[in-house]
């Protein structure tokens, strides 16, 4: 279960928080009083070891103290610290015996029930844990919210294990209401448990937004465990939604979160080494082929001069000539392939080095702004900086995805399988993933589904195209605006989806270049003409799906992009 690890952490920490608080009141005063009055070395050492959190020694000396006293109040005190020392060492059954031996006096009733609740929770006796915690809540008059939040959380955990999710949710809601808005760690923990409650009830619409909120909060907080747990939960959620590509991304972040996703120098160094290795390998192959050709020429001359007859000479000459032609053709083809590969790699390196520079600087600036707003406790500034950072991060992430997808497509490693799918769910799934980006950019989405139909396409490559087109629509929006998604049927053979925005539009000259991309490969593209990798990837994938991608735009009034795909009914 997703909450098992967090459950253990909360029980231990809440216990420590509780007894740490006690050091300032009754237990501290009682320990000092026993030591001062008895002058017993064993008693005083047990108390000193407890105070300094040396629980191994405290466990041994408090056990000796219990055998040396018959005083009821002293026994209650030493049973308390003896049980707690056993609890910290994981000796839950011994801790249970010690805590049950404490009397029900007013001084120890709340402490006893709280500690018994923690032990029962660790022993998975959830009904008993609930009874102890409810006694504490019913009789507690202290206003210490730290202890109260711990009790509410442990009650929620107990009810999760008892599969009473509604009650568990109530206690987590109560805990959340006590948390200070500046306590990011506590908010993340509480919302994680709430998300797990919804998720275990299969209420994904309530659970997934909470998981996403926790994930976004954890990214801005310097806590290793929070980042690991948040990214792992998102990986599990995406895996269960069968979005394996996104799930793998979150798993990678979970494992390697310490590494910078935008360490451009390392990316450049590794890719440059790959390029040099590939070029050296190809050059070595060409050199070998050249040497072979030279050898063949020597052999050919030797056969010409050593031929005993014209027919034999002509036969051998024809044979070697054809072989030479074949090898020359192979070398020529290899040189052409190498030139295209080098130009493609140079193009991709240009995209990475050029297009990442601006967002990296923007993200750095946003982090500085965010730090400044946090120091000034400027919530509105934090929200604006966070929204801006989300936009830049999403855009950069899609740029990197385009590089990955293009590399996979060029190496024929992209899984491509055309099947029959309803058109509408594919579009809605992509739009769902864009809710945060749309909200951050203050853009309105309108949908007009005229007629749903079955299409024959590769679903994942179609999603890549839709994401790129939505990215461009948001990117080139002039401030606030709207994006209209329309889906319908062109004819018996084709269905279509159009994405129309109210952005800055495209000039007539640039529009002609974009619409002429249908039969242009990357090795013939001049990037200075304003044609990006995303549009080339879109044209390639739509064409591979036997569809048509067209653009219609007027500068200053927006752009309309239409995808036509074959219908399966046809």
UniProtKB/TrEMBL annotation:
Entries under SMART domains matching the protein: HATPase_c, TPR
Span of domain Histidine kinase: 351-569
Keyword Zinc set for record: no
Reactions mediated catalytically: ATP + protein L-histidine = ADP + protein N-phospho-L-histidine
Membrane-spanning segments: 302-321
Superkingdom of origin: Bacteria
InterPro entries for the chain: HATPase_C_sf, HATPase_dom, His_kinase_dom, HisK_dim/P_dom, HisK_dim/P_sf, Sensor_HK_Regulatory, Sig_transdc_His_kin-like_C, TPR-like_helical_dom_sf
Ranges: TPR repeats: 149-182
Enzyme kind, highest EC tier: transferase
Keyword vocabulary terms for this entry: Kinase, Membrane, Phosphoprotein, TPR repeat, Transferase, Transmembrane, Transmembrane helix, Two-component regulatory system
A GO MF label: phosphorelay sensor kinase activity
EC annotation from Swiss-Prot or TrEMBL: 2.7.13.3
SUPFAM superfamilies in UniProt: ATPase domain of HSP90 chaperone/DNA topoisomerase II/histidine kinase, Homodimeric domain of signal transducing histidine kinase, TPR-like
Protein name: histidine kinase
């Amino acid at each position: 279960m997703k909450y098992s690890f967090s459950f253990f952490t909360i029980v231990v920490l809440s216990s420590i928080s509780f007894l740490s608080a006690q050091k300032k009141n009754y237990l501290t005063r009682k320990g000092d009083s026993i030591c001062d009055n008895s002058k017993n070395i064993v008693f005083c050492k047990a108390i000193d070891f407890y105070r300094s959190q040396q629980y191994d020694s405290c466990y041994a000396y408090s056990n000796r103290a219990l055998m040396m006293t018959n005083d009821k109040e002293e026994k209650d005190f030493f049973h308390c610290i003896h049980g707690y020392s056993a609890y910290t060492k994981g000796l839950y059954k011994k801790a249970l015996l010690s805590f049950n031996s404490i009397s029900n006096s007013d001084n120890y009733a709340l402490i006893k029930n709280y500690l018994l609740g923690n032990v029962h929770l660790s022993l998975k006796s959830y009904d008993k844990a609930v009874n102890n915690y409810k006694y504490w809540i019913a009789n507690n008059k202290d206003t210490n919210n730290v202890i109260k939040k711990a009790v509410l959380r442990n009650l929620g955990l107990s009810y999760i294990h008892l599969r009473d999710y509604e009650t568990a949710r109530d206690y987590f809601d109560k805990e959340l209401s006590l948390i200070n808005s500046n306590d990011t760690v506590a908010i993340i923990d509480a919302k994680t448990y709430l998300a797990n409650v919804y998720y275990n009830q299969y209420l994904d619409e309530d659970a997934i937004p909470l998981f996403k909120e926790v994930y976004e909060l954890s990214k801005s907080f310097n806590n290793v465990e929070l980042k690991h747990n948040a990214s792992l939960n998102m990986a599990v959620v995406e895996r269960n939604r069968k979005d394996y590509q996104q799930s793998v991304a979150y798993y990678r972040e979970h494992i390697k979160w310490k590494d910078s996703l935008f360490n451009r120098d390392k990316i450049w160094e590794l890719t440059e080494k790959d390029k040099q290795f590939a070029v050296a390998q190809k050059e070595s192959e060409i050199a070998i082929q050249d040497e072979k050709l030279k050898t063949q020429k020597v052999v050919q001359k030797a056969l010409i001069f050593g031929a005993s007859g014209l027919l034999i000479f002509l036969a051998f000459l024809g044979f070697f000539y054809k072989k030479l032609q074949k090898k020359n053709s192979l070398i020529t083809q290899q040189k052409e392939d190498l030139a295209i590969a080098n130009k493609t790699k140079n193009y991709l390196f240009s995209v990475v080095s050029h297009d990442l520079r601006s967002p990296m600087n923007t993200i750095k600036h946003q982090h500085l702004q965010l730090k400044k707003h946090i120091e000034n406790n400027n919530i509105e500034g934090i929200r604006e900086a966070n929204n801006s950072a989300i936009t830049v991060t999403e855009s950069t992430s899609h740029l990197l995805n385009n590089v990955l997808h293009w590399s996979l497509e060029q190496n024929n490693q992209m899984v491509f399988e055309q099947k029959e799918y309803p058109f509408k769910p594919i579009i809605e799934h992509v739009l769902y993933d864009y809710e945060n980006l749309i909200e951050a950019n203050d853009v309105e989405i309108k949908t007009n589904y005229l007629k749903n139909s079955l299409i024959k396409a590769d679903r994942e490559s179609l999603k890549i195209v839709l994401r790129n087109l939505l990215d461009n629509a948001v990117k080139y929006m002039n401030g606030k605006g709207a994006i209209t998604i329309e889906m319908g049927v062109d004819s018996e053979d084709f269905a279509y989806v159009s994405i129309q925005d109210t952005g800055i539009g495209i000039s007539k000259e640039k529009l002609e270049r974009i619409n002429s991309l249908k039969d242009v490969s990357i090795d013939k593209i001049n990037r200075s003409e304003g044609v990006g990798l995303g549009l080339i990837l879109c044209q390639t994938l739509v064409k591979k799906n036997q569809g048509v991608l067209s653009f219609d735009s007027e500068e200053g009034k927006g752009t309309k992009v239409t995808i036509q795909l074959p219908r399966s009914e046809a």
